[in-house]
């Protein structure tokens, strides 16, 4: 029985986060939970375990109901003997940035976060590059290396010490202290091990105290701890002695162990997928998003902890007051409800940076952009200097059993030094990329595909078949998904409209728009089989809610492309649907043969030249209330539908492809503030900047795609304030509710908007 008196399922009873399988792949171990029992009580650890993305995010979001106070509490209570050892060192680890409650936490965080802003972090980049080059210089001619021992601990630890302002001491000892701290806090040590790690933790505590004392004598340096000591003089009640000592020790661990593990996981995964490694070697612009996808797929944080301050409910499961929660971020990162085809490693994935590996909300990892920078520089250096590096065949991997951190203890790689590019080409030593700080720009994340076929689909419409030039499978996609083609300066979005069963090909259809900006004409006039095109995606902002029972699909002209795949899917599912498709003449209406053959009875065609018109008022008036409407077509068709369906219970879902004009004229705009309720911060939005730009400037990760108000990916929930909606995504009814905003284009009507961020 759980503490609330509910029976514990066999799978929940068997869950043990100290087993090797969990240390290696928590998401795989917890797939059953994401599928069937997303919140469960684990008698093994006396914790409630949360495994789905949205539930984990909701817990992170509310740091009052879900207090972080237990984050550094030992998972395994120390024995009396271990306690005595710790006491002999006056060990008194107290609250730090990760385990502190409000309001003290945000008060301190605000005082100390300046050093983590993007401009400040950028000062550390030359040092990280230099250090990385030196480490690679040491091993480049050896032909083999244990990347963990020979580099991936050393650099993050040096960077961490440099960032904190701590002199470089005995690095190996510090590494061992960190491991002891991890075992002591998140592991299940035996009684003998407890005494040993307690000794290491005690020594670590004393070391931190001594360094702090030395720094106090001259706190004029540029390190974060020196900055904190100076702040203590200004605000002694906010930055206290006990806080500084605890932060010194926790900071050394937090600033390097997570990065070291994340980098080791990244190299293991990339070298295990040679085709992806090769793509990075060929095109370094892909590195920032590849790092993000590695953090999603195989990040170094398995799970984090919280304790409830009141009785509550998560996903329908009752949780008592004082319950300890293990929120398994790694599992959330593999939740198919949030990430399309989540167990596919796809460096072109468009929402990789929404991973939970840095946490979320006001406790989100402050050092995330430093970690990103290090991982990007490591990859850039290795893909350039050792592109022929491979995992050592037959090497065994071991992972430290614990609830929260994951990474291999060793990572053996090998290569033939005779093939090092720099031996024959000195330019191989020149850095190929200079990545901007912060979350990656999706604009660089394009894949190069080959046009495998061009065919006529209707008058003015051609169909293109796209394939990977190396024959790699393309990611799976769902009905309503689209890709973006980049041809010269043109970027145009096209719905995927072929069969979904063939992973080798994507199909799109392109209407020649004589009055358009020129992109479609260029595609019609120039694209031939065998040519290369740059493609981003797939993305889906027009997702079919398959839980509905009745559907009405409406297409105008080329808007048939996403609607067609939705009809195919509904037929496959055996759902009740009807499809209405309007065009000028039958000759201009694409896919008629396929539609008539596959959806004959459900299909209603309206060719204007034959005197047939799609009468929307009559069509909508005749619908059953629960019918969900999905529509794609010209702006005027969608505008009319919005007018007619404002209060239709089944809802209207639609997709635009024509962008919004986003040019901001500062003379006509006004500045305002956005208050970020989950993070307890306020950000100023000047008249000449979008909300998205203002958030990014202070280091916030907000996913965006089109940045033209048509895709919906930058949507953020609004808690207060009147919105000046400028997007083409939200329906009139959604706008009237005033509870969400597209931050790439929409603004505040007044002086303030409060966002759930
Ligand atoms: Fe596409 Fe904002 S990024 S609507």
Walkthrough of the structure:
It is built from 27 helices and 28 strands. The protein is an alpha+beta fold. Among the domains are: 80-257, Cytochrome P450 (Cytochrome p450), CATH 1.10.630.10; 446-539, Translation factors (Elongation Factor Tu (Ef-tu), domain 3); 550-655, Rossmann fold (3-Layer(aba) Sandwich), CATH 3.40.50; 672-755, Ubiquitin-like (UB roll) (Roll). Helix 9 (125-139) runs parallel beside helix 19 and helix 15 crosses helix 17 (287-298). It is globular, with a radius of gyration of 28 Å. The mean pLDDT is 90. The site of FE2/S2 (inorganic) cluster (FES) has 14 residues, from loops.
Bound chemical compounds: FE2/S2 (inorganic) cluster
Classification by helices and strands: alpha+beta
The shape is globular
Q: Numbering strands along the chain, what is their spatial order in the largest sheet?
A: 14-13-16-11-12-15
Which spans of ≥5 residues are poorly predicted at pLDDT below 50? none
By CATH reckoning, the class of the domain at 80-257 would read: Mainly Alpha
Sheet with the most strands, sense and barrel status: 6 strands, antiparallel
Mean pLDDT rating? 90
N-C termini distance: 37 Å
Examine the coordinates and then state which fold CATH places here, giving the name of the CATH topology of the domain at 80-257.
Answer: Cytochrome p450
Percent range for helical residues? 25-40%
- Rounded Rg: 28 Å
């Amino acid at each position: 029985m759980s503490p609330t008196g509910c029976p514990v399922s066999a799978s929940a009873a068997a869950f043990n986060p100290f087993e090797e399988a969990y240390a290696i792949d928590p998401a795989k171990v917890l797939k059953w939970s994401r599928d069937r029992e997303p919140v469960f009580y684990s008698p093994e650890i006396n914790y409630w375990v949360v495994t789905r993305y949205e539930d984990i995010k909701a817990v992170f979001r509310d740091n009052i109901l879900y207090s972080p106070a237990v984050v550094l509490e030992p998972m395994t209570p120390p024995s009396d003997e271990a306690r005595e050892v710790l006491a002999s060192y006056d060990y008194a680890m107290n609250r730090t940035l990760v385990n502190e409650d409000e309001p003290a936490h945000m008060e301190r965080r605000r005082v100390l976060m300046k050093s983590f802003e993007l401009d400040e972090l950028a000062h550390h980049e030359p040092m990280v590059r230099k250090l990385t080059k030196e480490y690679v210089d040491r091993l480049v001619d050896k032909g083999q290396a244990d990347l963990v021992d020979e580099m991936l601990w050393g650099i993050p630890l040096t960077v961490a010490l440099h960032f904190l302002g701590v002199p470089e001491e005995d690095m190996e000892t510090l590494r061992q202290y960190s491991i002891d701290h991890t075992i002591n806090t998140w592991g299940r040590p035996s009684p003998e091990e407890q005494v040993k790690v307690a000794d290491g933790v005690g020594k670590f505590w004393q070391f931190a105290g001594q360094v702090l004392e030395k720094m106090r004598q001259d706190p004029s340096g540029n390190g974060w701890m020196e900055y904190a000591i100076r702040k203590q003089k200004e605000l002694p009640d906010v930055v206290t002695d006990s806080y500084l000592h605890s932060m010194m020790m926790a900071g050394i661990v937090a600033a390097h162990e997570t990065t070291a593990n994340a980098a080791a996981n990244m190299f293991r995964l990339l070298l295990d997928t040679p085709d992806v490694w090769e793509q990075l070697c060929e095109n370094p612009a892909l590195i920032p998003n590849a790092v993000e996808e590695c953090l999603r797929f195989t990040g170094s944080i398995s799970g984090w902890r919280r304790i409830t301050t009141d009785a509550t409910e998560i996903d329908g499961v009752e949780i008592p007051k004082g319950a300890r929660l293990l929120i398994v971020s790694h599992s959330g990162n593999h939740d198919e409800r949030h990430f399309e085809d989540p167990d596919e490693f796809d460096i072109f994935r468009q929402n990789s940076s929404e991973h939970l590996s840095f946490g979320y909300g006001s406790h989100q990892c402050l050092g995330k952009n430093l970690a990103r920078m290090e991982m990007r520089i490591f990859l850039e250096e290795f893909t350039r200097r050792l592109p022929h590096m491979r995992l050592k065949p037959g090497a065994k991997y071991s992972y430290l059993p614990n609830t929260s951190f994951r990474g291999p203890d060793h990572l053996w790689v090998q290569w033939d030094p005779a093939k090092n590019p720099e031996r024959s080409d000195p330019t191989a030593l020149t850095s190929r990329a200079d990545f901007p700080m912060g979350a990656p720009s999706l604009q660089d994340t394009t894949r190069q595909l080959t046009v495998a076929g061009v065919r006529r689909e209707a008058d003015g419409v051609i169909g293109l078949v796209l394939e990977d030039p190396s024959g790699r499978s393309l990611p799976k996609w769902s009905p309503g998904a689209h890709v973006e083609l980049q041809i010269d300066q043109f970027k145009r979005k096209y719905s995927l409209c072929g069969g979904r069963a063939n992973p080798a090909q994507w199909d799109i259809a392109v209407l020649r728009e004589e009055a358009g900006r020129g992109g479609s004409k260029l595609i019609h006039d120039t694209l031939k089989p065998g040519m290369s095109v740059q493609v981003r995606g797939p993305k889906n902002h027009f997702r079919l809610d398959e839980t509905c029972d009745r559907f009405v699909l409406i297409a105008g002209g080329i808007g048939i492309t996403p609607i067609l795949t939705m009809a195919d899917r509904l037929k496959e599912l055996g759902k009740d649907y009807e499809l209405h498709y309007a065009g000028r003449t039958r000759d201009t209406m694409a896919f008629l043969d396929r539609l008539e053959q596959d959806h004959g009875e459900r299909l209603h065609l309206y060719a204007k030249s034959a005197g047939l018109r799609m009468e929307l008022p009559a069509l909508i008036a005749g619908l059953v209330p629960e019918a969900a409407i999905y529509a794609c077509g010209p702006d005027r068709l969608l505008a009319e539908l919005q007018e007619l369906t404002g209060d239709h219970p089944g809802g209207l879902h639609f997709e635009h492809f024509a962008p919004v004009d986003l040019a901001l004229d500062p003379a006509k705009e006004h500045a305002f503030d956005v208050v970020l309720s989950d993070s307890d911060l306020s950000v100023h939005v000047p008249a000449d900047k979008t909300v998205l730009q203002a958030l990014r400037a202070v280091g916030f990760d907000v996913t965006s795609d089109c940045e033209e108000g048509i895709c919906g990916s930058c949507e953020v929930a609004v808690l207060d304030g009147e919105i000046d909606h400028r997007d083409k995504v939200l329906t009139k009814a959604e706008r009237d509710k005033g509870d969400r905003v597209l931050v790439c284009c929409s603004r505040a009507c007044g002086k303030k908007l409060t966002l759930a961020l």
